[in-house]
Every structure is written in structure tokens, then in C-alpha cells.
Design goal:
CATH architecture: 3-Layer(aba) Sandwich
Oligomer: single chain
CATH superfamily: P-loop containing nucleotide triphosphate hydrolases
Number of domains: 1
Shape: globular
CATH class: Alpha Beta
Distance between the termini: 51 Å
Strand order of the largest sheet: 3-2-1-4
Length: about 160
Amino acid sequence: MSENKTNINWYPGHMAKAKREIIEDLKLIDVVIEMLDARIPVSSRNPDIRNIIDKKKKIILLNKCDLADETETKKWQEYFKKQQIETVLVNSNDGKGTREVISKIEDLMKEELEESAKKGRTGKIIRVLVLGIPNVGKSSFINRVSKKTTAKVRK
């Protein structure tokens, strides 16, 4: 009896499509926010995202920080700092850290905004992309920052 060898692709089609769309949209994006669960930062990180956003300005949000061990969270912040990646502790449900996120975005874009202002171009809109695996709090964060409830949240 012969054994048929078939390749099974475990990467679902919708994920491949989303990856292609992210790569295309990155051309228009100034800052990428990667949202992770503060309790499990490595497990809640999609390894593809790191490669896709490599050259972009980025901030990592450690969401659900209120549920995470404070000592361990500080270690994770140091870990990302050594990689020269800004982190912010957030709680998307109560809004903790959202002002700091906006401040970090402005800091990352400061030089570019100043250059634009020197050329007489003011009021530049900073375009931000929020990425993360399901259930890390992206929709809650977007709703909190935008003061709207347009992003659907699963509870």
C-alpha cells in the first residue's frame, strides 16, 4: 500500500488575508501599537507581527495590567526596553494608561511633526494601527481612546 503525502496548511485563509492587508496598510501608518496581555506577553504575541512591523515606530501595550503580577510586568517592561521598544501598561476596561499611550505616540512622532511644521505643514494626522491576537483588548482600547463604541467587544 502506498502512502499519500499531502501538505496541510494550518494557516487559516482569513489570517493570511489579514496579514496581506496589514502589510499593504503599513505604507500609510506612522505608528504601530501591538497589544499584548500583560499576564502572558510571549504567549499573546503573534510572531509574524514582529517581522511585519520591524521598521515601523512601535509601542507595545501591556493590557490587563491590573490582572498581572506587578513584579513580572516590570521585568517585561525591562525586556522590551532593552529591545528599544516603548511599553505602556494599560487597562482598556477602565482607561488606565490611555493618556500615556497618546503621549508616547506624540513623542515618537515629535521630530517628523517638527520637520513638517518647518515646511509650513501643520495639523498632520498621525495614523496608528492597533494589532494583536484575539481577546487582548484591542476593541476595548479603541473604544476607550475614541470615546465611541464602534468596535465590537466580546465579553
